[in-house]
């Protein structure tokens, strides 16, 4: 295991051998560590967010939180996925109920709106550009509901907008309706906004300790800069090596915790949009333990050998409710009799890992003793750094996403 500030531990299996070790070292050496650690890293605005002051975010979130017990977060993609990853840490039910309106399926959205008590619900609308059609459509439908029910006088109190400080349809509407605007940092793309107010404001409302989250990220960043910890460089190099030498073009991340379900979605977008350019990159797939042991694992073990696996484990041992003994003592399931649910989860994550290893499949194991705000911050920062170094090795601009523009143009055309 490679220890990483004691929050994260890494271990690799079936990855390096006598034939590829030199290629692996060459990939690592493509990173000018002195330049990155002392100069380049500080130029990424989304990394510097771990050092920003959060007093105003906390103050505003406490004020807004006191007004409502129910909240709806409107946005799509990177505008909300960071908040979802953070809020997903807390098992339901939460002190504050959060609904995420991230899709525009008309039937589901209509049903969600029908179940809302507009008087007692706070709405957070997030769009960096202020022109995102999905988010603007949701916002417009809600405003119509307020208007149709003679509640327009509540809009200024029930809504908060997060968008860039510029003239846009969203900012103009917000000013017209006297809705408070929180500035979305122009220098940070949505998928990189998890340490900014875009994710921290709704997370703070939900009861997440955002100071601890930022601390986890800051500790990892400082460990890289001050101690020259190259774990992110190793992670990036290993993934690229597996693709280039073994044609492993699918990057499977297996999370064994309900608290990381939304984090898996966050990682999937981060990896896809940042590296999928110029016919480069690998395809991220998020698998959920133990659910996908009963579906995708068959393919992973007996299907095409085109996948590099990352398994994120945590300690489940001796946690959760106890399984009734006498019910199972005399059955073929006697091995779970008297055990705790966590004992079964622990066994299943270990068995999946060992099965992949036994089948000689390449696996990166990440162990997190306790999944909480601090360790999630550490994990997010680690993958931020992996993305930066992978982009450098591949000579890819991780900050843009030019290929999606065609779809946006055609969407406008179909509606015209």
Structure summarized in a few sentences:
By secondary structure, this protein is α/β, with parallel strands linked by helices. The protein is built from 18 helices and eleven strands. Helices cover 48% and strands 14% of the residues.
Distance between the termini: 57 Å
Helix run count: 18
| Low-pLDDT regions | none
What is the succession of H and E elements? EEHHHHEHEHEHHEHEHHHEHEHEHHEHH
Average pLDDT confidence is: 94
What fraction of the residues are assigned to beta strands by DSSP?
5-15%
Number of strands: 11
**Shape summary:** globular
Radius of gyration: 23 Å
Sketch the major β-sheet: 6 strands, mixed
Summing up helix and strand content along with how strands pair, one would put the structural category as alpha/beta
Instruction: State the assembly state of the protein chains.
Output: single chain
- Helical proportion, percent range: 40-55%
Give the neighbour order of strands across the main sheet. 1-2-11-10-8-9
Defining key terms:
416 residues, alpha/beta, six-stranded mixed β-sheet, five-stranded parallel β-sheet, 18 helices, 48% helix, globular
Describe this structure in words.
The mean pLDDT is 94. The protein is α/β, with parallel strands linked by helices. It has 18 helices and eleven strands. The longest helix has 22 residues, at 373-394. The radius of gyration is 23 Å and the shape is globular. It is 48% helix and 14% strand. The protein has helices spanning 21-29, 33-38, 45-48, 55-65, 78-87, 106-114, 133-148, 155-158, 169-176, 197-206, 210-227, 231-246, 261-275, 296-302, 325-328, 341-358, 373-394, 405-415, and strands at 2-4, 8-13, 70-74, 97-101, 121-126, 159-163, 180-183, 250-255, 283-288, 307-314, 363-368. A six-stranded mixed β-sheet has the order 1-2-11-10-8-9, with helices on both faces. A five-stranded parallel β-sheet has the order 4-3-5-6-7, sandwiched between helices.
């Amino acid at each position: 295991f490679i220890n990483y500030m004691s929050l994260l531990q890494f271990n690799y299996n079936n990855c390096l051998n006598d034939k590829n070790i030199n290629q692996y070292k060459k990939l690592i050496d493509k990173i000018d560590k002195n330049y990155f650690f002392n100069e380049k890293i500080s130029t990424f605005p989304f990394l510097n967010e771990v050092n920003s002051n959060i007093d105003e975010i906390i103050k505003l979130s406490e004020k807004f939180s006191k007004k409502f017990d129910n909240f709806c977060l409107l946005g799509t993609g990177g505008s909300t996925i960071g908040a979802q990853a953070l809020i997903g840490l807390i098992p339901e039910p939460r002190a504050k109920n959060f609904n995420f309106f991230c899709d525009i399926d008309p039937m589901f959205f209509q049903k969600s709106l029908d179940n809302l008590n507009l008087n007692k619900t706070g709405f957070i609308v997030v769009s960096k550009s202020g022109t995102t059609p999905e988010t603007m459509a949701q916002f417009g439908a809600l405003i119509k509901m307020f208007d149709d029910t003679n509640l327009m006088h509540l809009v200024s109190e029930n809504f908060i907008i997060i968008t860039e400080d510029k003239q846009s349809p969203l900012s103009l509407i917000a000013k017209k309706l006297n809705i408070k605007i929180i500035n979305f940092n122009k220098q940070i793309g949505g998928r990189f906004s998890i340490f900014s107010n875009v994710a921290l404001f709704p997370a703070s409302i939900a009861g997440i300790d955002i100071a601890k989250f930022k601390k986890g990220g800051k500790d990892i960043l400082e460990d890289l800069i001050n101690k020259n910890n190259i774990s992110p460089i190793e992670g990036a190099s290993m993934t690229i090596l597996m693709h280039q030498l073994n044609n492993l073009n699918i990057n499977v991340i297996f999370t064994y915790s309900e608290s990381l379900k939304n984090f898996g979605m966050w990682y999937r977008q981060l990896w896809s949009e940042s590296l999928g350019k110029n016919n480069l990159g690998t395809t991220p797939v998020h698998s959920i333990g133990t659910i996908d042991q009963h579906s995708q694992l068959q393919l992973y073990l007996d299907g095409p050998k085109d996948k590099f696996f990352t398994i994120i484990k945590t300690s489940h041992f001796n946690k959760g409710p106890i399984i009734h003994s006498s019910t199972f003592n005399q059955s073929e399931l006697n091995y779970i009799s008297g055990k705790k649910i966590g004992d079964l989860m622990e066994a299943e994550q270990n068995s999946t890992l060992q099965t992949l290893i036994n089948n000689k499949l390449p696996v990166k194991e990440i162990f997190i003793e306790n999944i909480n705000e601090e360790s999630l911050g550490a994990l997010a920062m680690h993958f931020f750094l992996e993305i930066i170094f992978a982009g450098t090795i591949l000579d890819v601009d991780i900050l843009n996403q030019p290929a999606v523009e065609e779809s946006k143009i055609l969407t406008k055309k179909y509606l015209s």
